[in-house]
Design brief:
Length: 124
């Protein structure tokens, strides 16, 4: 599903070139996340905390286009990260990754009204 919704390498390059943003090194991102603890702060040299703030935009339409481009690049980078993690799983475990499928004990039973109320409250 991620491959169908996130930009592939060619589209990410086109977005970066069209909007003058950083060109993502897809293969390096993917390889970096194979067999690596990406959640450790000490292992992450590419933190965003030192980046400059946003620049002034010309119009609302331009802001929306640039936001869409940024989200496309980010989703592509996350896709490469996920693919690296899945490949690492295969190397470590020796078997292809499969999503967890929790069997439903009572398939006809709906969510408890109290639980639904708590969920709605959490959403605002």
């Amino acid at each position: 599903m991620v491959r169908l919704t996130c930009p592939d390498t060619a589209q990410a390059m086109l977005i970066a070139e069209s909007f003058g943003t950083v060109v993502v090194d897809s293969n390096s991102i993917r390889e970096l996340h194979e067999a690596r603890d990406a959640t450790a702060k000490s292992a992450n040299d590419a933190r965003d905390e030192d980046l400059d703030g946003p620049v002034r935009y010309d119009s609302a339409a331009q802001r929306k286009r640039e936001f869409a481009a940024d989200m496309g690049i980010q989703s592509h980078a996350l896709r490469m990260t996920a693919e690296g993690a899945v490949a690492a799983y295969g190397h470590v475990i020796g078997d292809a990754w499969k999503p967890f499928d929790h069997p439903v004990e009572n398939p006809g039973q709906s969510l408890d009204p109290k639980a639904a109320e708590a969920q709605m409250a959490a959403l605002g």
